[in-house]
Amino acid sequence: MDMTHEMFTKIAYQTDDRTDLVSAINALYIDNNKNLWIGTMQQDIFLDDTVEKLLKKINVDKYDLDNNATWKIYGDRSNTVWVVHD
Question: How many CA atoms lie within 13 A of 15 on its CB side?
Answer without folding.
Answer: 16
